[in-house]
Specification:
It is a single chain. The protein is 13% helix and 20% strand. By secondary structure, the protein is of the alpha+beta class. It folds into 2 domains: 47 residues, no CATH class; 187 residues, Sandwich (Protocatechuate 3,4-Dioxygenase, subunit A). The strands form 3 sheets. Strands 3, 4, 7, 10 and 11 form a 5-stranded mixed β-sheet that branches. The chain has a 4-stranded antiparallel β-sheet with strand order 6-5-8-9, with no helix packed on it.
Amino acid sequence: MIERRSDPRYQGRPLPRPDDELVDQGLGFDLGTLFNRRRMLTVLGLGAVTAGLAACGTSASATSPGEIPDETAGPYPGDGSNGPNALSDGGVVRSDIRSSFGTGSAVAQGVPMTLELTITDLANGGAPFAGTAVYVWHCDRDGNYSLYAEGLENENYLRGVQIADAVGKVRFTSIFPACYSGRWPHIHFEAYPDQASITDSGNAIATSQVALPKDACDAVYATAGYESSVDTLAGVTLDGDNVFGDDGGASQLGTVTGDTTAGYAVALTVPVDTTTEPAGGNAPAGGGPGGTPPDGPPPGS
C-alpha cells in the first residue's frame, strides 16, 4: 500500500483501515499505539489480559486517559450501598464536616485540614464541572469511621457533600485523618452529576481517593492524639498500598501546604469522564456495620 500524507492518522501513525473506527484498526495497530494501560484494556477488551493483571494484584477499569482512577469506596462509605446512609439526611450538604449532624453530637478532634477538589469534565474538553455534587468521608484521628465503629454508629462526623461552583471547586473544613493498619493515609470521595443524585449511590460518576504526602503525615502524627498512627505509617508505603500502589498515587497525591499549628490545606484536581462506565465504588466483602477493611480493622474499632 502506498502511504500518503493525507491518509487518516492517529498519534502520527497511518490507520490500516481508514474507513473504520479507531477501535476497529486491528490488534497489531492497537498494541503499537501508546495507550494508557487502563484505556488500552477498555478499548481492546482483552479479557484474558485483564484476568492476568488482576491475578498480579493490578486492576483494570473503564477509566479513560487522564481520568481520576476509579477506586473502591471501602467498607465504610456511608452512602447506603452497604447499610448506613448519611446521604439521605438533609444536613449532609455542608462545608464543615468536623461535627455530626442530625441526631449525632460528636465533634472530631485533630489537626485542622481543608480539602479543595477541583472537578473537571473530560467529556466537555476538561471544562470546570460546575454543579456536580461531591461526597467526602474519611476516618478520624483514631482511625475510626463514623456510622460504623463501635460507639459511633449514631454519629456521622467527617462526612459531607458540597456542590461544585462555577470553576468546579468544592471545599471542606475537616481534620487530618489517621493512618490505620494496612492502608496509606487517605480521603475518600464520590462525585455525582448533581445534588438530586446523591440519594442513590448507583448514580456516582466517579469514586476515588486522595493520598496524603508523607512529610505532612509525619508532622501531624508527631502531635498529641495521633500516637497510634506513628507505628502504622512506618508499616506501610505508598507504592505498596492496595489502592495507590498501582502507580504510586501519581494522579491522586494531594498537594499540601501549611503546618500543624495553622492547619493544612490539601488540594487535588479531579478529572471525571462521564463517557466511561464507572468501575469503582463497590464495598469489599466484610463491609457494612461492624465490617473490617481488607487488612484489618482501624485501631479502636
